[in-house]
Amino acid sequence: MEQESQLTRLGLFDARVPRYTSYPTAPHFKPVVTSADFTRWVQAVPAGGAISLYMHVPFCRRLCWFCACRTQGTQSDAPVRAYADILLAELELLKANLAPGVRLSRLHWGGGTPTLMPPDMMRRVAGAVFDAFPLAEGAEFSVEIDPNEIDEARMDALAESGLTRASIGVQDFDPEIQKTIGRDQSFEITAEAVRMIRARGIASLNADILYGLPHQTPQRIAESIQKLMALSPDRIALYGYAHVPWMAKRQVMIPDAALPDAQARLRLFEVARDLLVADGYDEIGIDHFARPGDGLAVAQKAGLLRRNFQGYTDDQAQVLVGMGASSISRFPQGYAQNAPATGAHVKAIREGRFSTTRGHVFTPEDIWRARMIEALMCDFEIRADEFIRDHGFTPATLAAVFAPVQAQFGDMVAVGPGGLSIPERGRPLTRMIARMFDGYEMEAKGHSPAI
What we know:
3-stranded antiparallel beta sheet; 19 strands
């Protein structure tokens, strides 16, 4: 109770804070990065280098009310096939601008619902990708699979195309909660999807589940977590539901009165976390859990855990190329986002150019701020020796950066010659502490960032 009172005083239950899958975050992108910039940045990737590739499929058979992703509904395969043709044209454009010998560190299909694609289309897209860019040693090919939109033929196509990691969305197994969020997906349907995945030798399985949903209680989330653990995923993302109906209009279908308050959300998270840890999962960062042999757990122990638009990752590639409408790419030079509207993206690709409409060019200050935020999100620690060695800090300048953070959060952070760390009791505040290092977010709110 004393800790909850301290968390309340520090504003945990009132704050809306970015998830920090990028720095700066996407709301701070501006139309200063163009297709020409994207082209130059792609051309600067060295020959023989490794990149990650994200392919966005923005279509769904139904639009779940809880979802804030950029998606559109379709009952026909026709728009999906037309869009796949555009992905292939975009792939050819990318290949024409990349130096020879570039290989893939990661390939991920996200959405939307990538498994909406018919089997022949899956094979065609995957084949074109690997013809253009072979997988590097130890690379992964992952796909987001909707258990309501998968069958034996499509699973065969994915497995034969080289799928190594499957990701399924669960959200919650409680029927009342599913009805309220517009996502009917029984445990039996989910278990059948997992059976199909495992039967094809795809050993790596991710699952997403949400806390903070309408009508969710500690007992209900415990039951859902126990059912999920019965499916033995290697990796679980335990995300907090973000209710933003002013941004995601479909969320107006979810009654505000049914949502748990902020203190109840924390208890829901703690119940789920305790069950996962008791079952042998390692806690990864603020919202992921992994079996000890999973790549995330190994990366965390080695100090190689990273953060990108998919959340936590063990991918070490310096370049992430996003393909498809609204996708975001990351280069050493900055971020570039494709046109959010499918029509605008399609038009650009048909005209033989990338559809970049906005982004951000990194400043030297961005680089060290981004790394400090990532270090906190991944390791709960900013190591002084790294920033003295790699970013030109001195002990005195680091102390000046850390001072306002310690003044704000007191004993929820620990500051010393070795750097700044977040002890166990302060970890619910990790995103709020990270925000102190976010120059753009703090200035937008009228505060001075840690400098």
